[in-house]
Amino acid sequence: MLSFVLRIEMSALDKLRDSIPNFASFCSSEDARTELIKKYCLEISEILAIVKPILDEVDPEISPDEKLNEDIGMLQAAVSAARELFDSWNSLISKIYFAFQIESLVEKIHVYSLEMCQAISSLLPPSATSNVLLSIEKLEKVKCNHITNSIKEASKQLESKAIPHPEVLEATSTSLKLSTNLEFFMEAVALDKLKSRSDFDQIAPVISLIEQMHETLIKSTQPHSIRGVPIPADFCCPLSLNLMSDPVIVSSGQTYERVFIRKWLDLGYTVCPKTRNTLAHTNLIPNYTVKQLIANWCESNDIKLPDPNKLLTQNFPQTLITPSNSIPKPNSPMNENSNNSKMLPARGTESNSSGLSISARDENGSIGQGMTNNAANLASRNDNGLLEPGSGVNSVSRVSTDSDASSEASQERATQSAPPPAQTEQGSGMAAGTATAPRSHIMWPRQSDRLVPRIVPSPSAESRPDLAEVETKVRKLIEDLKSDSVDIQRAAAMELRLLAKHNMENRIVIANCGAIAPLVGLLHSADLGTQEHAVTALLNLSINDNNKIAIASAEAIEPLIHVLQTGNPEAKENSAATLFSLSVIEENKVRIGRSGAIAPLVELLGNGTPRGKKDAATALFNLSIFHENKARIVQAGAVRHLVDLMDPAAGMVDKAVAVLANLATIPEGRNAIGQNDGIALLVEVVELGSARGKENAAAALLHLCTNSNRFCSQVLQEGAVPPLVALSQSGTPRAKEKAQALLSYFRNQRQRRP
Q1: Domain named U-box: which ranges (predicted)?
Q2: What is the per-residue pLDDT across 173-218, written as a single tens digit (0 to 9) for each?
């Protein structure tokens, strides 16, 4: 016990002591599930963990020390204010304003902790100061990464009429978790509410910064054409940035996609997102004129409208799923939106990003995705085996080939997105845009941000009055899965496969009734038909991300690998697709890679059916986002197959190049690309490929050249300079950046030569 001359007010000391374990538990609780909150919780916890041993040894029963009492009181006040700020967090407040407030408190907690320890040290005899001095040393080494520094830097650049550096904008949006169009609209509205506050003098430059960041996001994500056909601007919703299926007019006169503006209003907003004017009423008036114009345009150009519900879940911010105990108190400091906020209950933790779509596979093995255009209930695959994109950045979907599939049933089939390319650590993702090359390529959209929870529709008695009947049927089928009869098991697995295909409510009911575990058990069935139905049922169930978690928790990864190795061709395809779907969850990328899935996926990539190769390439791409898996993929021999698949006749150029761009970030990957004659083909893609293909080929070549003089010489010998010059002038923003960097590297290399 430290003995020194002081008397501390016990209430402040006790509160401070109690705050430390409370913060540690808060960081791991549901209340701190948003990464922005967790970041600051961890920073504060790190500081408090350093001072805790000193506080535990303080003996308060001596004479008073005014300076130490003041330091402890100030530290306790700052800690309490930070916790109150966390408790008052809700998804509709300004993230920037929150960052300015909390970072000020983090700085105070750091300073007061240091001053408190220094005060204690000054009161102790030299022989008793070792622990305190060690704490002081640790506190002096604490470095907090303040988001507001980059915000201030970018704001200053805007004020001086300069365009902020792209890396500064990217760092700011990443740190604030502002990644979707909806999140930027929400931030803009929240900042508008702060204009009258005298305690936020940064409001004007911050609003300008958000407008600049929002404009940059729209330019990089909104599709301007589909298969070379320009999209009329008035056909796109300002919220979804995509073609409207059900356009409606709000009282401000603006037209929006119904489900997007309805969600906006349900959150409690009473202003028009685009004009920021207060809405006179919340009635939504169908815009039949625009709807008919869009329908005619789609029919004339053979374009499929995107599913607005799918787009909503893909673009819905993570922070909108808020626990009830996070709803702001009426007088809480962060409650600038409290009058209009209607917080949504948590409805699941589905991960989501704008990416390649996986939909439920039907009994013929196709992946079901309905046509929203009445001109056709069925669609055929293109030469890639995929439906041509209907919305540029957000739609790649296989379609059902059921001859009896009705339009209504088709429209119910939901899709699930996976993490797209831009998630790779070196940014080898594909940017939004459309293919301009004559070849038909798969759309690989750019990711908007990290994986984020999505809202799952709960079963509604109004929309599905037969759910009780479905549940009864499912429970009977689950019992049949456990039968000793192979025929009964096969029939039950097939029925569940078909039920899981139709809609999200069925998938939720089937999982809630406990079907996942017995279906996983049947993956080891000696009957190949039963095995196929079981793995396809799991694939269809995995469209719901809650089910993804449940399937992985049921130890399904190893059985799925078993199917990948032993199943019939369709079972192998669907096993690969299921592994891809599960890998949307970040931790599953690690588990799948370490469980031995990569070698059989590479085998399927090289020797599978055309669809099997596509599923394998998609799964390998997703797994290659996790750095540890890259070497495994290279060692399994994937590069040779990927180079072969860069032949346009295979219909997989974009997929192959996307994976190669990820693998080019490690030495083994670069060597394998060079050894398998991939450089010439990458240069060819830069010249003749799709927008996405060019972008990723340029990224791969940049890694190859900047890490090897030999590869750099080969790239130059293949005549890469002219297509790179063209790409630097007319490619996507990211493609231009890569091409310019590569050309600049070539120039620097020439200048260094004697």
Answers
A1: 230-304
A2: 777 878 888 888 888 888 888 876 656 777 788 888 888 888 888 8
SS3 236: strand
Would you call 359 helix, strand, or coil by DSSP? strand
Query: Apex CA 598: angle with CA 593 and CA 601, to 5°?
Result: 140
Residue 347's CB is within 10 A of a number of other CB atoms, namely 14
**94 and 191 Cβ atoms separated by less than 8 Å:** yes
What value does the CA radius of gyration of the chain take, rounded to a whole number of Å? 28
Nearest-CA neighbor of 353 among 298, 424, 301, 283? 424
Dihedral angle computed from the Cα positions of residues 459, 463, 465 and 470, in that order, rounded to the nearest 10 degrees:
-50
- Nearest partner of 619 among 645, 593, 646, 654, judged by Cα: 593
**Measured between alpha carbons, how far is 81 from 149 in angstroms, rounded to an integer?**
22
**pLDDT tens digits for range 472-488:** 888 999 999 998 999 99
Q: Which of 55, 45, 69, 42 is nearest to 16 (CA)?
A: 55
Q: What phi and psi values does residue 268 have, to the nearest 5 degrees?
A: 105, 0
Q: How many helices (H) and strands (E) does the chain have?
A: 33, 9
Both tokens of 541, joined, read: 């169930």
CA gap 445, 419 in Å, rounded: 9
Total-model pTM: 0.46
624 neighbors 630 (Cβ within 8 angstroms): yes
> What is the pairing mode between strands 357-359 and 415-417?
antiparallel
CA 27 to mean position of chain CA atoms:
22
d(CA 209, CA 221): 18
If one counts every other C-beta atom within 10 angstroms of the C-beta of residue 401, the result is 17
In the block, which residue shows the tokens 């070497």? 631
39: pLDDT strictly greater than 90: no
Instruction: Give the tokens for residue 349.
Output: 């933790």
The pLDDT tens digits of the residues spanning 419-473 come to 333 333 333 333 333 333 333 332 333 333 322 223 333 333 334 446 778 888 8
Q: Which tokens is 296 given?
A: 């005619």
The token duo for 291 is 């709807």
Q: Is 210 helix (H, G, I), strand (E, B) or coil?
A: helix
Under the phi-then-psi rule, with left for phi > 0, alpha for psi from -120 to 50, and beta for the rest, what region is 336? Answer: alpha
**H runs (alpha helix) in 437-585:** 467-481, 486-502, 504-512, 516-521, 528-541, 545-553, 557-566, 569-582
